[in-house]
Amino acid sequence: MRIDKFLWCVRVYKTRTLAASQCKLGKVWVNEELIKASRELRLGDQIKVRKGPVHFTVRVLEFPKARIGAKLLGSFIKDITTPDELAKLELIKLQARDLRPRGLGRPSKKERRLLDDFMDLEEFGEEDEQWK
Q1: 55 has which bridge partners?
Q2: What are the pLDDT digits (tens) for 3-35?
Q3: Residue 6 CB neighbours (<10 A)
Q4: In which order are the strands placed within the sheet that holds 33-34?
Q5: How far apart are CA 107 and CA 68, in angstroms?
Q6: Which pairing describes strands 33-34 and 28-30: parallel, antiparallel, or unpaired?
Q7: Residues contacting 52, CB < 8 A, separation 6+
């Protein structure tokens, strides 16, 4: 089975095109070798995929006939990602949570009006009655 098709079938990438482009960009290794998307896999091959700063590593156990559900992944791949890489992933998740508190995304309609009023005051240097 081709590597791009396999990575799509086992849900490493959302589309087969994305899997092929990641192979072309040099973000996928098989048995420590950079490969092309057309590379044929064999049982027992070790695949290393770089997603952001984290390198995920899996071993091929079996080939699926088509794209499979997330619950069935254990019978087709074995995750052998090192604990150091998983720690990197957890650190990234914690940093992302700290950067932007939940619920402070887009302002509400009321907050938007207050921001607009504030920006108008700052722009023209005038004071408004409600702010005195």
Answers
A1: 50
A2: 999 999 999 999 999 999 999 999 999 999 999
A3: 24
A4: 33-34, 28-30, 46-51, 54-60, 77-79
A5: 40
A6: antiparallel
A7: 92
User: pLDDT tens per residue, the chain (132 residues)?
Assistant: 999 999 999 999 999 999 999 999 999 999 999 999 999 999 999 999 999 889 999 999 999 999 999 999 999 999 999 999 999 989 888 877 666 566 677 777 887 888 788 877 655 555 555 554
d(CA 44, CA 61): 6
Per-residue DSSP letter, 103: T
Report d(CA 53, CA 59) in Å as an integer.
20
Determine contact, residues 41/6, Cβ cutoff 8 Å: yes
With b meaning 16 or more CB within 10 Å and e meaning fewer, what string describes 64-82?
beeeeeeeebeebbeeebe
Tokens of 42: 């064999």
Which of 47, 57, 46, 44 has its CA nearest to residue 85?
A: 57
